[in-house]
Write a structure and sequence with these properties.
This is Excalibur calcium-binding domain-containing protein. With 115 residues, the chain is mainly alpha-helical. It is built from two helices and four strands.
Length: 115
């Protein structure tokens, strides 16, 4: 909002000064922020889609024939299925891609809360 000074019209009448809303609802000053927000949302959705697509590319490109469904050959194991951390670590080391859920923080140690 800004103050508009008084002025004379072409017909000679005077218009007194007043406050006028010169900005539209979608002002050019806000378009930069909106554009950044939209780019961030698009970029984060692309990243989330590409992370889920990596596992399918690995399984489909691993080899041809009967092992093309290697993701279905992975048994579902949780830390509750093991009695000790050493057992869980041995299973994790045997196939890190298959048992990646055993290493929650990604530091290479499976089921750290077990003893």
């Amino acid at each position: 909002m800004g103050y508009r000074k008084g002025y004379y019209r072409k017909d000679g009448t005077y218009v007194q000064g007043h406050y006028a809303n010169n900005r539209s609802k979608f002002s050019n000053k806000n378009n930069g922020c909106m554009l950044l927000v939209l780019v961030f949302i698009a970029f984060s959705s692309i990243i989330s889609c590409s992370d889920s697509g990596d596992s399918t590319e690995i399984t489909s490109g691993s080899s041809s024939g009967s092992s093309s469904n290697s993701s279905s050959n992975c048994p579902t194991k949780t830390c509750g299925d093991f009695k000790s951390q050493a057992d869980a670590q041995k299973t994790f080391e045997s196939n890190k891609k298959c048992y990646k859920n055993l290493d929650g923080d990604g530091n290479g140690k499976a089921c750290e809360h077990l003893k």
